[in-house]
Amino acid sequence: MKKKTIAIDMDGVLADIEAQLIEHYNKANGTIVSRESIQGLAEEEAFSDRTLLRGVLNTDNFFRTLPVMPDAVESLQRLQENFEIFIVSAATEFPVSLAEKVAWLGEYFPFIKWENIILCGSKRIINTDYMIDDHCKNLDYCMGKPIMFTAFHNVNQTHHLRVNNWKEAVAYLEETL
Question: Which residues are listed as membrane-spanning (predicted)?
Fold first, then answer.
C-alpha cells in the first residue's frame, strides 16, 4: 500500500527561526524585541526594518545554526514509519540559505533522503496529502489537507487546522491512518 505524503516546512516548523531572528535583529538594530512582544503581529509589524531583516536573513550561517524545534526529530522518525515525508522550504528567496539548509537537515534529520528535500520559490506546486507550514500563504494553496503550525505571526488566523507543537501534529496525523 502506498504511503500518504506530508510536505513539512523548515523555518518555524522544524527549525526555531523565531529565537534566532529575534536575537540577530535585536543585536543589529539595538532593539528589545521578545517572543511575547511579537505574538499576533504580522512579520512586517514585528520586524519593521525590512532592509535590516533581509540583511539578517542573508547573514552567513544564520540558517545553518538554527535550533531544532522541540520533538521535531523524534516526530519525523515516527511519522516516517507510515508516511513519506518531504521537507519543503521556500528557500530561493535567500540564496545563501540553500547550502546551509541542506547541511542543517543532514545534521539533524539524516534519515530524510536527499530526494525528499525540495528547496523552491513557491509551494503552490506541491501536491502532497498533507502540508505542515506556519504560513497561510503556503497553506491556502495546499492541494491536500493543510495543517498550520503555530507561530507568532499566525496566532490570530483560524482558517486552517492548527497544531501547536510536534506532539499534536503526530497525534493528528496518526489518527488519520
Answer: none
